[in-house]
Amino acid sequence: MSFNDQKVFLRSIHPFDELSDSLLEELSQKIEIAFYPAESSLKLCAPEPERFVIVIKGEVKALDEEGQLIRVYREKDSFDADALLEGHCDLDYQVSEDLICYEIDKESFLKLFEASEAFRRFYLMDIVERIEYLKKRERDNGMGEWMTARVDESYWHSPCLVSPETPLLDAAKRSMEMGRSEIIVERRSGEYGIIADSDIKRLFVEGKLAKDRSVGEFAHFPLICVEKEEFLFNAYLTLIRENIKRLGVTEEGKLIGILEQIDILSHFANHSHLVTIKIERARNIEDLKEASLGYLMIVRRLYAQGLKARYIAKLISEINRKLFARLFAMILPEELRDDCALLVMGSEGRGEQIIRTDQDNALIVRDGVEVESYTPYMERFSKALIEFGYPPCPGKIMVTNPDWRRSLSGYKAEIARWIEQPDEESFMYFSIFFDAEAVAGDHELLKEIKSYIFQRFDGRNDIYMAHFAKLTLLFETPVGLWSALLHRDRHVDIKKAGIFPVVQGVRSLALKYRIEALSTVERIKELNNREVLEEAFARELIEAFDTLGILRLGAQLQALEEGKEPDNVIHSKHLSKIQRDLLRDSLEIVERFKSFITRHFELDRLPS
Amino acid sequence: MFDCLKRAWQRKRLKDPRFDFLFEPYRGDEVVVLDTETTGMNPKKDEILSIGAVIVRKNRIELGQAFEAWLKPRGEIGEESIKIHGIRRIDLEHGESPETVIPRLLEFIGNRPLVGYYIRFDQRMLSRYTRELLGVDLPNTLIELSEMYYRRYRKSSAHEFVDLKFDTILETLDLPRLGKHDALNDAVMSALIYLKLKSMPEYKGAFS
To answer: Does residue A2 register a pLDDT over 60?
Structure first.
């Protein structure tokens, strides 16, 4: 292969793409191609590491001294920089599929190290930095997409459309009713004109306003429009160029909406405040429903912009909470509102539900108040949520279920039962309830129950706590082996393999150390503050958790786009190289966390 | 036996003693994989346009020290051959003369065995030049890839048809195509074929 072809190949691999042309040139004069048949060993480490390997084709498994699979390398993967830098390695590299690879001698590899900052950074970074770095790169790669957002991906307003003969006063009233700040005039010829609120103010000052005059006399023609397929960026440039505040959005020349400067800016920033405003302004359940359906667009946008999962989740859960509170207020008569607390629980309680997968909610009623009086309203509440797109909870953990609509003392008794007679179900109920947050009504009701829980566990119930923590290990986390599946058409339930173990482990620690924070990330931070988790590990755990969340979100959005039911299954063939690396690193951290939990709660001393 | 005599006879006819090493028996563990691009398929009148060669030591292709050269042809390049190798006359403006390229190639390959796909053809083409310059044919031992392949892929009878096209071989062996079609790339691809075939057992017959 000519030097040029090699350079092209090398350039497609990070971090080799960061090398200067002359360094690549020099490298390609030093490089060798090697072939190893399947089932041979690379003998990379004996007696000491001397070669750096880049896979062109084939598969290599790295095994530790005990024969445990550590990693699998495929096309464009490279190894083992650490071994070359440290001068020794303990891994055995076994060829599992006929391997064709580049080999670079140690000296040349180290030379690149000295010569290229990017190269050095990539191989020296610890795992958190590496995840950050890879994410940033992925984001940068997504920049192009960001710039190519189209008008119809943005939010726009329905136009207040009137004929030229309409009296100005009537038109103005109508635009106020619609909450618009402009009137659009449509001529029979199909041309559009505009009267903005500021025009009316000017006419008023100039004394030209008269009730009987029609809008046709004042409107500016033509209204500047963009087709809905136009790039949003171009729409923005038009606004600036024409020094105007709004544009018409057309579909084949027909006006379908008004796009304001703020809409574009918020598209490029984030879009959530618009939905929040819509929720606040909603006059009935229909309005709320409409506002609520906009959430998916926000999620898509924030995801495309490369925001961390925890920030997306935070924005979305804020919107959700506003929505719940508003709906609750609309449905429940005022006299009933202060004697109860509406709870969201589970992932919604932790503020970690981005895509609506279920509704876990409950109602606490003040002691002495008739619980049954809430029943019909709770039915309506739940029904509305289902219409908003929150699927009912398969386990019926909802306000429609009398088990989750109890008095304060009723809950205490129930919780006592969960703890005293634990079984699989009660562990689950306890977990979900432990993550509850009050979103409407009297928040003190929940606070009282939470402190009751912590009191019950004060210095006691070690066995219960250990069993609770043991749930962390309920599902297998595929480390090492997972990488072997990466290149094939395989899949993994990322919730079971990665997200749940972190949530449950952290929840167990939160219970033990009486941490009130609800979100997994906040709990981890607090555990670090209390020196339960070391800072470096806490950081790694947060990044891993976030990475798993973002990968799951990506898969869920993809499923929704294809009209499928979003689930937690990640298909390895849909992942990019960077994503595969991120997933692999994250699952390794989860596995380490599981070991930590096992040690911390002495789980191996539990009778199984 | 006959080969041996022919070698000795040729060795005596060698005009330039500097190249006597070509006739030394080879004792190392390296081979040279070689490919040429030519103006046509007739070793008597066609010319070599480019040569690519790599040394293979054990399981490694020494890409860094690859041999690559372009020759300026004396005659015309036929249109049909341009279609095959994509080399036009203008591409060889800076081509070198056989008098400089061939000795350099001989230094490169030494007395190592030569490996290639229909290597006998390349050997005949090269011998045209070595006869002119040194008075001898290229004496190196030849290892034929299509034959190696055949021995591993025939299933039953010795007369069975096995598709020996270069691209078919690549495909059957599941080897990636690295780079475009030129003498050096084809030499590298041939080297990969060689390494892979070498790692596979030969077909020994149904009854062994």
So the answer is: no
